[in-house]
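User: Hey, quick favor. My workstation is busy. Could you predict this chain's structure for me?
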Amino acid sequence: MTSLLRLATALDSLWSSPVCVTLNTNTGVVPLKKLKPNGLKVLVVGGGGREHALVWKLRQSPRVSEVYCAPGNAGIEKIAKCVNIKADDVTGLLTFAWEKRIDLTVVGPEAPLSAGIVDVFNDHEMPIFGPTQKAAEIEGSKAFSKDLMQKYGIPTASYGVFTEVEPALAFVDELAARKTIAGSPCVVKADGLAAGKGVIVAKDVTEAKEAVRSMLEGNAFGSAGSRVVIEEFMEGEEVSILAFTDGDHVIPMVSAQDHKRIFDNDEGPNTGGMGAYSPAPVYTEELAQQVQESILKPTVEAMKAEGRPYSGVLYAGLMITAEGPKVLEYNARFGDPETQPVLMRLDTDLVDIIEAILEKRLDQQAISWSTDAAVCVVMSAKGYPGDYEKGNFITGLDNPIAGVEVFHAGTAQKGDHVVTTGGRVLGVTAKAQGIREAIELAYRQVGNVCFDGAHYRKDIGRRALERLS
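Assistant: No problem, here it is.
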């Protein structure tokens, strides 16, 4: 905190009036300045497809005058001012926010949340949207989230947590011996943050043990895999539910379904997500009510009871099993690529929702959604999710089809050209009256975009079409 005080003192001269710095050591709820009614300067932290979608949505607010993004990308550059500050450079972001008198900061990725960016901004009475460091541990540690669910009776798969190889291998054998599910005996997860790729669904005992060894002995995911969570395999259909919460009240967003595997028919290694659509037909109104009462509300209440009040967006990755919905994982922020189709359907001003959360009056905020469907198809670089190519020119980005937004995920401007810089390059997102129409629209736009080695799944939305046929 001493360094933060020195920083605050140095920056205080930049303001025309004295700055009140409140140091809060328990990272609980901090009283913040109220947002201005209009003329807001907004900073979005991050540089991927989710952040492009957030910038796109925030710019639609009549209350917003300027949007900055750190570090941003080539697509974001066209609608906001990008600044060369890394998303996990908390001190740099705070300095920039003070210099520019930013009225609201919205955090996209998980790394700065786990690093405590919200705590730092709160300490300096700088309005910021996202959970505190202690609350973000619900994503930062899978062991913590599993223990939380077990303690508070939130439905999830049985599991074990290990730092040593031999006990972990013995647990794999134990799960296989139960034979409750034919095929995959278990799922092996790196405990820490691994950019959505630290999950291995083992097809058999041999593969499961290889995954354990690769994480605990082979350093496959670095420090994130120094502790592993091994779970019983759950059978069913996945659905992603993002929810707004102010720590007391929870309002779920419209449902979505992600596509984690790199290849069609859910084959190949896990990725950060190869596409998503909303709504997910598997998620009925009855299921929605069940999830609200047995998962979303109990999770927020549990975090409050643990002294980790949770405010922001809570993402629940669910498996719809024969026994009902169960939690696969939590994220402490907007999901990517689910954010793209979900925000395409949001009719309410996102700034108004964020303000209601910051002021802890979410229960008084009406939120409306389009009845249209939205589909996001991710175009990735050759080699992703392993080592991938960079620097390839992208063509066909100009004049997108009506009803389509091309959200940039891993791009940069190089002279007059946009080039690839990330594994996931673009998120082509379409909105239409029905899911079939949205799928067709998205793939029409995908066909117009080219870069060397471009890869995308051809079956985004397949499960939805099967249920609707």
